[in-house]
Amino acid sequence: MTRLTDIVESWRVRCPYGHTHLVDQQGPTAYCKGCREAYRYGDLVDAREADAPALVADVDHRSE
To answer: Domain extents for the chain?
Structure first.
């Protein structure tokens, strides 16, 4: 499995809600500063995929 830090074009990797400000953590997760939640690598989205969410501002989607 590819670690988040191995991906050169970091803008390509997004959380499921479209945020790009991710911090790699110990283990198979990355912390999203926009959501304030950690996601498993398999839940992250590659922006080159056709169904990738658009880039979004860091807003708290949990209050919706």
So the answer is: 4-50
